[in-house]
Amino acid sequence: MSTNDESRRVELLCDRALVGLSLDEAAELDALLGADGDTDAFDLAAAAIDLGCAGGELTPMPAALRAKIAVPRVAPAPVLPAAEAAPRAVAPVVPIARSRTLAWTGWLAAAACLALAAWSWSSRPEVPPVAVAPAPLPSAHPVTPRPPTVADERAALLLRARDAVRVEWSATKDAGARGASGDVVWSNREQRGYMRFHGLGPNDPRLTQYQLWIFDKGRDDRYPVDGGVFDVDPATGDTIVAITAKLHVGQPALFAITVEPPGGVVVSKREHIVLTAAMSSTG
Fold it and tell me: What is 19-50 written as a DSSP string?
């Protein structure tokens, strides 16, 4: 905006605050204001002088200004999005007879206040809008995922593998099998399985370990597949063990648990068979 336009805008704002504007001047001021913000500083300055000098002999306040300050302020309407914003309307101002020369009374002080308001308003710095990032939502303490347990993996196999078969253990007459129970789960397609035991006699890993044998219909019964060694919780006798078959199992027929020296053996003498689980069918 040019300096002449700025001066003209300030002049019209001062006139509006002191004596009011004609319809043509109001339209001119509206065009000069454009999208500028609040310009009530001029009106408020004039109102403050009028109230401060109420005890003296002053020229009566213009009707247009008195009407502005007599109406209580209301909450501003919500700001609409740019696409929906209504065109800025200018309140009609009743044209009044006026003189450019201010009365030599308290209105001279009002003019001085208006000049100060005009200088403050016209020289205000242009502050670019600052993007304010939304405050971060409070978050709970990060939780480290718990690695799956053997029990979780067993349950997942039962849900995932359609050919998974679960068979109950049967205890033999061996003393170590007294009161023992549980089951074996096996998926032949995944060559994966788990054994679950309850009440199985605790072992001393320094002396003995339990070992699994998988009898395959396609193999000689003298050489079952080694399924790995394991220990039992000495406090409860309960445990879940993942099967680690050393060879591919074609068609499992029987799972057997024996008691062997630490680390297991290649070929079991089958002197201490404590549990067996016969597979009736596989997928």
Answer: T---HHHHHHHHHHHTT----THHHHHHHHHH
